[in-house]
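Figure 6 in text form: structure in, sequence out.
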């Protein structure tokens, strides 16, 4: 009986929706034919979800195209509330907020800030405020307002597409975040490709990005270490003092901790943007989820050992980075290297990214942090030996060696300049 009622209800509302859609399709076959093709191939079109459900009814001619509403995540949530709720509690929903708090965002060309290039191309997946949306519209058609369409490409909105590892590739690849390269060349990625090509049976184990990061289709998408691979130093536990000291140095360089060991206002912003696990407890929740996922294919002993090796890589990478930070902080402190304007702490501000590195030694530090530390840590967790070792840890070791040599050269030049000035003052003639 309930099924019959649902069917009758669908028919009552389906007929006018289809009639409206026919008017849209007739025009858009001429103006945007690929959009029509995608919509007709979607499940939406077969279930009576037509144009006005997402865009409203105020746009009917080419003269009033500005009246077409842009769908928001809440639009999708009308039918997909569970997925929307999960998405809003995860890191992807905060992608726009994360890029907005980064100091260099405001230094970028407008095309990279608001367009389909640069940071906005990926960070568009994040939830935008009403003010953000209004600002986006002033720079173009409001690209990326819907968020969900970052993975479920409009207008087909295919769940099957979003389940493929390639759906993650456009954002999670390249210089800054080569997750795709790490994954696709790992045994997990190779088996997934072979399975897609029909070389392995459908029953074969072939983990995708979604297998590990979206367990059972959960749209939250969180990891234990987070993007920055940091958490607050925990006093009194089994972690060694050297790592705690290294973590404190990195937290100061990220602007999360001041010279007195107190947490700054930026720490609250970073916490709100969810790019780091700022307590051991929330870190453990995500780690336990990952262990359960690994255990679907591997023994618990194997899974925990592999993840602990990743933790060890974080510790080793932190030590190399912290040593480099101490060296450059010493140059600032001794007046050998001029601190960037507005920099409060003696340590470089690692979140300034593009606009801070003004000298070769500072540029080397930022490459070490942004590029090589990321590869060392994430290459290890993604089971990619090349990225973990040669493109990560080995590069960090070379970075540190070059920073030491550059620092010594700067100190020597500073001493020679001081000596020269002293001799001139002794011999004014």
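Output sequence:
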């Amino acid at each position: 009986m309930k099924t019959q009622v649902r069917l009758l209800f669908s028919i009552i509302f389906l007929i006018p929706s289809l009639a409206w859609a026919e008017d849209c399709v007739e025009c858009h076959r001429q103006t945007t034919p690929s959009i029509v093709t995608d919509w007709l191939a979607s499940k939406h079109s077969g279930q009576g979800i037509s144009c006005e459900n997402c865009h409203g009814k105020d746009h009917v001619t080419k003269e009033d195209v500005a009246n077409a509403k842009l769908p928001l995540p809440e639009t999708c949530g009308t039918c997909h509330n569970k997925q929307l709720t999960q998405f809003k509690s995860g890191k992807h929903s905060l992608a726009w907020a994360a890029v907005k708090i980064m100091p260099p965002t405001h230094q970028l060309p407008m095309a990279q800030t608001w367009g389909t290039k640069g940071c906005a191309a990926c960070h568009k997946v994040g939830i935008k405020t009403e003010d953000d949306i209004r600002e986006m519209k002033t720079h173009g058609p409001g690209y990326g307002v819907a968020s969900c369409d970052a993975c479920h490409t409009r207008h087909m909105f295919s769940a099957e597409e979003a389940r493929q590892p390639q759906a993650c590739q456009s954002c999670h690849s390249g210089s800054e975040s080569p997750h795709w390269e790490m994954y696709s060349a790992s045994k997990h990625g190779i088996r997934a490709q072979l399975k897609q090509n029909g070389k392995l049976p459908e029953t074969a184990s072939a983990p995708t990005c979604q297998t590990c990061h979206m367990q059972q289709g959960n749209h939250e998408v969180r990891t234990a270490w987070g993007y920055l691979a940091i958490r607050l130093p925990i006093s009194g536990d089994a972690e060694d003092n050297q790592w705690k000291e290294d973590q404190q140095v990195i937290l100061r360089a990220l602007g999360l901790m001041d010279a007195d060991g107190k947490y700054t206002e930026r720490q609250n912003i970073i916490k709100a943007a969810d790019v780091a696990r700022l307590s051991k407890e929330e870190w453990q929740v995500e780690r336990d989820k990952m262990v359960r996922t690994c255990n679907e294919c591997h023994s618990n002993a194997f899974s925990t050992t592999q993840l602990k090796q990743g933790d060890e890589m974080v510790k080793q990478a932190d030590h190399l980075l912290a040593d480099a930070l101490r060296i450059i902080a010493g140059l600032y402190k001794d007046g050998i290297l001029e601190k960037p304007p507005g920099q409060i702490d003696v340590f470089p501000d690692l979140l300034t990214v593009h606009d801070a590195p003004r000298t070769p030694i500072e540029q080397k530090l930022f490459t070490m942090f942004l590029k090589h530390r990321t590869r060392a840590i994430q290459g290890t967790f993604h089971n990619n030996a090349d990225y973990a070792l040669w493109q990560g840890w080995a590069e960090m070791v070379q970075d540190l060696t070059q920073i030491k040599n550059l620092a010594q050269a700067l100190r020597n030049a500073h001493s020679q300049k001081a000596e020269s000035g002293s001799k001139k003052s002794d011999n004014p003639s």
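Caption detail: Residues 2-17 have pLDDT under 50 and may be disordered.
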